[in-house]
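I'd like us to work through together how a protein chain folds, taking it slowly. To get us started, please write out a protein record for me. Go ahead whenever you are ready, and we will take it from there:
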Amino acid sequence: MSIPQTLLVNKNTIGITDTTETGESVFLNTTTNSKKLYLWTCPVGVYEVSVVCVGAGGGGANSASGASGGGGGGLGWKNYISVTPNTQYTIVVGGGGEAGTTSIIAGAGYSSYFINTSTVAGYGGNGGLENSTFTILGGSYVGDGGGNGGRTTGRSLLSSYYQASGGGGAGGYTGVGGTGGMSTINGSSGNGYPGQGGGGGGGSAGGEADTSGAGGGVGIYGKGLDGNGGTAGGNDGTSGTGGSGGENGAATIGVGPDFPATGGNYGGGGGASDGVNGENGPGGNGAVRLIWGPRYTRAFPDSDTTALGNITTYSSPILYNSIENLANYMSNYMTEYRNPSFNSYILDGDSTYIADGGGSDMYDNGNFTTPWLLSGTTYTSSFNTTANYPSRISYSNTIETIVDTNFKYTSLGYSTVPERRPLTVIGTRTGTGNPIGWQKGGNSGADGDGTLLATFAYNGSTINGFTVYAWIRETHAAAPDPSHCDLYILLGHPTWESTFGTINTFADPVSNGSNGGYLYTSGDGVKNILAITTLLSKAGGVQVTSAECQTVVQNIINRVKLYFGY
């Protein structure tokens, strides 16, 4: 299937002129620190839907000087939203904010919404802070009703004890999520507060040098009982329970990062850690649920909102509509895509090519990057002017862009602070039977000298469930000029229903003075292939080895796998 289709349940004709089907779908995100985009096609016979959206919880902080848990995600619901059969609608589901470390600030949870944030949305809770007395707010909401996520606070201004405050509970259907507990003036732990209106309970504070409880999540099947707050006492805090059938915050039962105080699904704030053991946790992930039936029969907060059974649950969005969000997620982990002794070249042409590389003579105007075009036109020569590469992409373009009719790409960006190297871009095409891949051209600074490495790093291998083709085209051993190693990658996955065709490769000889090369797949059945290219380099003409390229490919695959939750 080309998009995630909704399975109709209890498919029967009701016999009225409005919505004539009864059904529902659930959309999830299983990956922390991400947001996932879906397209939902409105089924035949459906003209109105009622929707609940839960934002993700914020991650908990970690500091021996006191730390706060994450805020709970907000819950928003809206009934009888007009929709049109066979029309596609956008759904975004937020992932929980990542847990903080001594070097990384705890992340805010991502928001969840249907169509847009003005229609119905649950916003993500804020991430916890280190050694702070500030209030950490939970996420708000948009809709006919709902509740803000529970807040939490840092240590008391009047206390000299450095403790961890609890995570906030997820927002309820008619009230706020429970507030996370904080330490008292004398250093004793404070209880978490119960949720309201079916919201999750807040986690209790931890003792000095211990971990606080996480916030409870909230269910998506209508308003139910309030979640209880965590109870203080002992060393580690206790987590809040889920509201309306949501998941409890993770129990703090062990020592070390293998026992994180993760916020409950959906939308619980992560617990904090006031010490060196790092049991603080990420926030609970968000969710979106759509329900429909005869007019005025199924509505939130609690009118025929229970599960019907045989529900289609989506946790993996389609590839073509995930390019921008995937690129934005991958850009958080740029150091994983570098070879050892990476040469930090500079994008010193315009945003589409490298002029020199930063005084190193890496190129004489090179690294012009173009998708493999529907026309089959090759752009792999040593020509070094922008006029020779009319379809080149921009490495500063971090929003999804469609070129050549249906090729969608997004760059992971370029900057020196924050670090955005190596230059990396991802893309794919919609439809079936269109070629997918990348090609490069331009003038090498080696001026015809050096040694060529042209080989497969992977040739149809299976890695972590992905089918992988990775092609290396490198000029090296032209000291003092840096090596430039173009790594081309094609990925397929069964969940995408990927189909490869003929695999085509090229590497221009170094004697031509070019950095030209390509990898693409072509054929009548080609579809749903992720194409990636990245530029590796070492100073002084030192070779980037095939083994080093394989490691980069593996790291990229790991991030793609984590994003999609496979």
